[in-house]
Amino acid sequence: MAEKLSFEAPRGMRDFYPEDMVWRNMVFDAFRAAGDAAGFVPYDACVVENYDLLARKAGEEVGEQIYHFLDKSERRLALRAEMTPTLARMVAQRQKELHFPLKWTAIAQCFRYERMTKGRKREHYQWNMDIIGETSVLAEAEVIGAAVDALRRMDLTTAAFKVHASSRRFLGELLEKSRIAADKHAQVFLALDKRGKMPDAEIAAMLHDGGLSDDETAAAFRIMETKSYDGCPELVELFHLAEIAGFADALMFDIGVIRGLSYYTGVVFECFDTAGEFRAIFGGGRYDNLLTTIGGEPTCAVGLGFGDVVVTELLKARLGDAAVNARRGVAVGFMFPEQRDAALALAARLRADGERVDLALHSQKPKKFFSAAGASGAAKAVFLGPDDVEKGVARIKDMETREETDLCLRPER
Ligand code: HAM
C-alpha cells in the first residue's frame, strides 16, 4: 500500500482556503487601490532568481534565510526573499530607456527560511512601493503616505498603528561625532538593529566584534537614547510633508529604527501596531547605492515592503468574522430536472444584468436548497418548481429579512 502523505502544507508555507481568500483579497484590494491612488504603476517579476543577485554580505539575516538550490544544469537559483534586488536588476537592465523617476508597485510572493514567530511565516506576500531616481524627501513622504492610506482603507486608524522613522545618515553623523569611524558603521547598524530583539550584552559583543572599543560601544548605546531629530534636515522635511499630506498623526521619530538590510542609506522607517503585539507591519527606506552594487548606473531610490501576514492578523483581531460574512449574490435552484433549463436561463439573464449568480448544479428539495444557499452566503435565493415555470413568475427571497417578492421569469426585453 502506498504510504499516506501528510495533508499539511510544508512548515511555514500557506494554503489559502476560500475563507482565507476573503481576507487576502481585502488586504490586496487596499494595496492596489492605495498604490493606484498615489500614481504608482504595477510591475511583476519571476519568483525564482539567480542566487548571486540575492547572496548577502555576512551579518545580514536575510542572507541566511534564502531558499536556494541547483537546477538540472547546475545553475544556483533561489526563491526571492524580497523584491528589491529583483527590482534593481530590472531597472539596471533598462536603465537607458526608462524615464525617471519611476514609481513602481508589485505584490510579490517572497520566501524566507524564518524562525516562525507570530506574524512571520516562511512564505508571505509583500506589497512593494518604490520610487527610483528621486532625491527629494517627497519620495519618502509619498511611499509612507500610500502605506498609511492602505491601512486606512482597511479601516485601521492611527490609534492602531504608528510609523517609526529615523535616518541612517543622521545616525552615522551621531556615530562619527563619537569618533566611531564610517567604515565600522555597517556593522554597528546591524548590531544596533537587534536592540529589543536580543539582550544588550549580545549586542555589545557584536559591536566589539565589529571593532568598537568599550568606550565606543558605550557611546553607541548612548546615541540610541536620542529623542530629537533636530539637526537632521531630511527628517525635519519628512515630518513637515507628513503634516501637509495629513498623516503626521501616524508618524513618530524613533532612533531605534535602523532596519536589518544593509542597503539603506538615509531615511528608514518601520510601522508597528500600537499595542506592540506584532512584528513590523511594513518597513522601508532610502537606498541610494543598490543599483551600483549590482553593476548599474548610480541611481537613488526609496521604497517599502508591506507584508500581508501581520496586517491580516490585526484585521482579524479587530474586525472579527463579521467582516468576511457579508452576504452577496443570488442563489438559483430547481426542484426537478424539468426545471433545469428555466433555472439556467434565469441565471444567464441575471448574470447579464451584472448579478453574481450561484446556480445549483442538480435538482433538489427546497429545504436543502435554502439551507445550502444560506450557508454559501447568498444575499437572495430563487427556487424554481413546476408551477413557477408554468406561471412564469417565481419568488425571490431575501436571505437576511426572509422577505419574498415576485420575480418574472419571462420579462420583456
Ligand atoms: P523587510 O523589512 O525585510 O524589508 O520586509 C518588509 C515587510 O515584509 C515586513 O515589515 C513584513 O511586513 C513583511 N515580512 C518580511 N518577512 C516576513 C515573513 N517571514 N513573514 C511575514 N511577513 C514578512 C524588505 O523586504 C525590503 N525589501 C523592503 C523595501 C522595498 N525596501 C525598499 N523597497
Q: What labels would you give this structure?
A:
Rossmann fold; elongated; 8-stranded mixed β-sheet; BirA Bifunctional Protein, domain 2; 5-stranded mixed β-sheet; alpha+beta; binds histidyl-adenosine monophosphate; 413 residues
How would you describe the overall organization of this protein?
This protein is an alpha+beta fold and 413 residues long. The protein folds into 2 domains: 304 residues, BirA Bifunctional Protein, domain 2 (2-Layer Sandwich), CATH 3.30.930.10; 79 residues, Rossmann fold (3-Layer(aba) Sandwich), CATH 3.40.50. The chain is built from 15 helices and 16 strands. Strands 1-5-6-11-10-9-7-8 form an 8-stranded mixed sheet. Strands 13-12-14-15-16 form a 5-stranded mixed sheet, sandwiched between helices. Strand 15 and strand 16 form a beta hairpin. The longest helix is centred in the N-terminal third of the chain and has 20 residues. The radius of gyration is 27 Å and the shape is elongated. The mean pLDDT is 94.
